[in-house]
Structures
1.
Amino acid sequence: MADARGRKTWRVVLIALAAALGCAALAAAWYAGAAADAPDDRDARDARDARDQRGATAQEAPCAEALAFAGGTLPSGATDARCTVQTWLDTHYRADFRMPRAEVADWTARNWPAIETRTEFCHPESAALCASTDSTGGRAHALNVTVTYEDAGTARVRLEAFTT
C-alpha cells in the first residue's frame, strides 16, 4: 500500500513539473517572438511613433484644416508648412512651419487671445517660447505651441491640437 501511494505522489510531482516546464517554454517562445518583432533602427521607431496605441497612422492634412481645428489660421508669411492628422477615438493634428520671427507674438495673440506664452519649462529645452491652452476657439480640446528661433529672422513653429 505504501508503495502505491509513493508512485502516485511521484506521478503528481512529475505532472506538476511538466506543466511548469511547459509554461516556461511558452513564455520563452512568446518573449523570443516579441524580441524578434521589436524595431531596432531609427526609421522603424519613427514609423511606430507615427501610430497611436490603436494603430491609427498619421496622414498628411491641409495646413488650413489643421489650424482651423486649433482655432487659428496659418500666418501669411509661413513657409515649409507640413501638417498631419491622426484619428481614431481622438483627433490629433500636428503642424510644423516657419514664419518671420518678428510676427510670432502678434500671430499667437491674434489666433488665441487668452493664451499665455512662456519661456520656461518648454519642451524641448531649446525652444524659445511655448504655450498651452485648453480653450482653443476651434474644435480642439487642447493646444500646444512650441517656437524655436532658427536665426535672427526665422522662427520654426510646431503646433499640436487634439481632442482628449
2.
Amino acid sequence: MLNAFIKLFTETKWMAWFWTLCILVACTIPGKSIPSAPVIGFDKVVHAGLFCVWIVLWLLATRGNALLCVAAGIAYGVALEFYQQLLPFDRTFDWWDALADAVGVLLGYYFKTRIIDRYLQRLY
C-alpha cells in the first residue's frame, strides 16, 4: 500500500503543483483572518512544515537535480515573502519566515534522501 502511495507521487507532478498552489493561497490570506498561534513562534514551525512537504513532493515528482529543487524551494520561500510585502493588507516581509522556509526545505531534503530513498531501495 505504501508502495502504491509513493508511486502515485513519483509518476506525476500534480500533487507537487497542488501543494505549491496551496502554499501560495495560504500566504495570501489576510493576517487578521488567521487564528492566533497557540505558542510564540508556532508560525515558523508551520512555515518549515509546509516547505518540508513541498521539497519532498518535488523531489519525488522530478527525480532529477536535487540541488535545483532545493534552490527553487528556498527561492520560492523568499519570493513569497516579497509577494506578501506587496499585498494591500496586513501581510509583511519577514526574514524569519524565509529562514523557516529554508530550514523546512533542508529538513525535507534530509528526510527524502535518508528515509524515503532508503525505503525505496529496499523495495526495488
3.
Amino acid sequence: MKKNSRDPSIELLENMREEGKYFNIQECFLGEVISGVPNLKVRFEDIELTSKELYILQGVKDRKTASIESNYRFELKKGDKVVILQIANSYIVVDKVVKL
C-alpha cells in the first residue's frame, strides 16, 4: 500500500456527504408577514403561504402580556419577521422575531 493512498471507503463516504448536502432541504426559514391574522399570509424565499396552508402555535395565537392591566393581544402585522418551520409539506409559524 502506498503512503499517500487513502482508504476507498473513506473517499466514498466523503463524496457522498459532499453530494448529499446539495439535496438537503432547509427546514427552518425566516419569513415576512404580508398580511396579518385572520387572513395571514407569509412570504419566504419565492414562496407565499396563506392561512389555509399555515399552522400557528397556540401559544403564539393566544399570547398576552404579563401585565394584568394590559389587554394587549399578540399580533402578526404586515412587515413582521417570523420563524417558519417546515415539517414535510406543513408550514408552522413558530414566533415573531426582531433584529437586535
